[in-house]
């Protein structure tokens, strides 16, 4: 079975995270202390506060009704069992884990029911989230803002009004999102004003309002450009019962939306069963330009499998895709002009937002996920929180 067949089978029938071998890609060495919660410190926050740079905070199974703030660089916060170690916000606390220090990894635990974000890095160099479950939080799931040199992997995010996985507001970003599952979110992945050495790959995005959406939302930062979206399964992202916020709804019903994005590569993805468009490039703040959409299989889209709105910038290319129809017609022969009909549909959804009439369910009432694959050996040495360090091969 080749990779596409495997991803397709998981995307249409699977229920768990796309997993890889839990082996070290890089050794962190043994020059660290392990602080055990609750044996050494009673709370997760106390364990983090007791850690020095390089240390491992290892949390035993249990439900921890607390928020955690990390300000010490280069520590690893790890649960002993991904499904059994639960940080619970009770729909009262703001953020689950908030990190404002370089080189921090968060691994192998569940974060749920916070009013804002599940796991949140801000303004850091070096980050990693591995084997995380985030669900039914009030804004984002697994989130890095104004940061670079990091990785999200083997993780699951559902029930967030904005994005399950988000990387934003920095360019170049130098990051990888791989082997993740996002469902029941406003967007599966969102990347605002970011790109360059940024890859979203080998992951499953299903039953969100929008699947994958690199985007430009305003002129505060340079436009979004140069992300790679490769080898993903993107299925059925037209879920009107998913939670949403105003700026996520305009791309509703689309698998991959290049929303004011430029110089992106969309390659070797399976994009199936969307109410509006399979893959669309559209003006938002700036026109889409220089995007390459090639060698994808795009099926069963309600309006068009491949689409380009107007006004369109120069250099967009659609080639080698398997699809049924496109707007404008003949998009693989000539993508120099966009389709007014595509823009009419998406602009109508923008007007719904302006009128306050867009759909969306409560983040508190989204389906709870089943058990997710946990780390094989939670006692293993830490590895760095960097883009190049992974628990996969």
Question: How would the blueprint of this fold be written?
Answer:
Layout: H1 3-13, E1 34-37, H2 44-50, E2 56-59, E3 62-64, E4 68-70, E5 76-79, E6 85-88, E7 97-99, E8 104-112, E9 119-122, E10 125-135, E11 142-145, E12 148-153, E13 156-158, E14 163-168, E15 175-178, E16 181-183, E17 187-192, E18 198-201, E19 204-206, E20 210-215, E21 227-230, E22 233-235, E23 254-259, E24 265-267, E25 270-274, E26 277-282, E27 292-294, E28 297-301, E29 304-308, E30 317-319, E31 326-327, H3 340-354
Parallel strand pairs: 1-2, 2-5, 3-6, 4-7, 5-8, 6-8, 7-9, 8-10, 9-11, 10-12, 10-13, 11-14, 12-15, 13-16, 14-17, 15-18, 16-19, 17-20, 18-21, 19-22, 20-23, 21-24, 22-25, 23-26, 24-27, 25-28, 26-29, 27-30, 29-31
Could you please describe the fold and organization of this structure?
- With 393 residues, the chain is mainly beta.
- The protein has a single domain, classed as Pectate Lyase C-like (3 Solenoid), CATH 2.160.20.
- Helix content is 8%, strand content 35%.
- It has a 20-stranded parallel sheet that branches.
- α2 links the parallel β1 (34-37) and β2 (56-59).
- The chain is elongated, with a radius of gyration of 20 Å.
Mean pLDDT, as a whole number? Answer: 92
Structure annotation, total helices: 3
CATH fold-level assignment: Pectate Lyase C-like
Taking pLDDT < 50 over at least 5 consecutive residues as the criterion, the unreliable ranges are 1-28
Main beta-sheet annotation: 20 strands, parallel
The share of residues in helices is under 10%
Question: Given the C-alpha coordinates, what overall shape results?
Answer: elongated
**CATH class descriptor:** Mainly Beta
Our estimate of the beta-strand percent is 35-45%
The count of β-strands is 31
- What structural class should be given to the helix and strand makeup? mainly beta
- Total domain units: 1
Distance between the termini: 19 Å
